[in-house]
Amino acid sequence: MSESDTAMVELAQQIKQWGLALGFQQVGISDTDLAEAEGHLQGWLAQDFHGDMDYMQRHGLKRSRPALLQEGTRSIISVRMDYLPEAAAAMHSILADRAAAYISRYALGRDYHKVLRNRLQKLADRIQAQCADLGYRVFVDSAPVLEKAIAEKAGLGWIGKHSNLLNRKAGSWFFLGEIYTDLPLPADTPTANHCGVCTACLAICPTQAIVAPYQVDARRCVSYLTIELHGPIPEDLRPLLGNRIYGCDDCQLVCPWNRFAHFSNESDFHPRHKLNSQQLLAVFAWDEAEFLRKTEGSAIRRIGHERWLRNIAVALGNAQPSPAIIAALTARLAHPSALVREHVQWALQCQTGLNDG
């Protein structure tokens, strides 16, 4: 091994130590060869599984060829940070309560983009202090990056049949982030796939969006429907959303590897404004000012008040019929948004039994 190679090995070890000190639970390094992932992505796009997420194909091959996105990239530092805020029993309890509002647990606290980006920048600063002419770029789900494929190559886990990254010692309740760098760092060994014959995630998906192992049709996915989709939620899928008003965690809740998941120590990821235990009628009553105040610094704010009401209206339509729900929906019938009015009308028909036939 040459002197320069030895230096890179030592630097890689330092980077991992610095990353752990900054609060990441794991740090890995990969090369930039994503040919296999590129083939999977192209096949997924060809089937229109991305729905209205045009950004998935807008950047051409930049997503799967890192050097096209950040010139000179030779290796990628991949990190994960746990975010699990509570036990599975608490989540199951909310899902079982048709009057409660279920929000995907990644969105209960501070926007993870901000938390991870800040830590990654500090890590990049440490590396730059050691390598003055460092070329790099930090990413947290903010550009055309195949973060799960990169993390898999970096040894952080394997992509499960639900398309999430899984780790044998930590499950899947974690965020990912990357630093593209021009350093020739030694790559880590990828982890073997340990899903085996298990198909629990396929069976539990409320909308059957996991159409085959490792194949998710986003157009049916609750997370897509409640977060990415800007227009009306397809009527045939609305009853399947239950009380999920922002995202979905079902495939993670049922995954046996998540018995090894760890609770997060990051206060930023702890629930704000009791978002882990809100009632549908309470959050449906928020006007736009209150919505903006209660979601300040949160990933939820990106959908805006209009889609927030759209999602909750669907959940109210799926709830046990009650005079209070009918009154709340009726009060929104004159909402200025046609999108909100449509979903409120549908929910009222559900509440009054007019959709039964």
UniProtKB/TrEMBL annotation:
Where [4Fe-4S] cluster 2 binds, per the record, is at 205, 221, 248, 251
| Domain annotation 4Fe-4S ferredoxin-type: ranges | 186-215
What's one GO BP annotation on this UniProt entry?
A: tRNA queuosine(34) biosynthetic process
Q: Which cellular component terms (GO) are annotated to the entry?
A: cytoplasm
Which cofactors does the annotated protein need, by name?
A: [4Fe-4S] cluster; cob(II)alamin
The main location class comes to cytoplasm
Record protein name field: Epoxyqueuosine reductase
Q: How is the cofactor bound?
A: Binds 2 [4Fe-4S] clusters per monomer.
The cross-references to PROSITE patterns, in alphabetical order and at most eight, read: 4FE4S_FER_1 (PS00198), 4FE4S_FER_2 (PS51379)
Pathway listed: tRNA modification; tRNA-queuosine biosynthesis
Annotated function: Catalyzes the conversion of epoxyqueuosine (oQ) to queuosine (Q), which is a hypermodified base found in the wobble positions of tRNA(Asp), tRNA(Asn), tRNA(His) and tRNA(Tyr).
Q: Which domain of life is it from?
A: Bacteria
Name the residues that bind [4Fe-4S] cluster 1: 195, 198, 201, 255
- What are the positions of the active site? 141 (proton donor)
* GO MF annotation: an example: metal ion binding
The record's InterPro entries line, in alphabetical order, gives:
4Fe4S_Fe-S-bd (IPR017896), 4Fe4S_Fe_S_CS (IPR017900), QueG (IPR004453), QueG_DUF1730 (IPR013542)
EC code: 1.17.99.6
Please write the reaction equations for the catalytic activity of this protein.
epoxyqueuosine(34) in tRNA + AH2 = queuosine(34) in tRNA + A + H2O
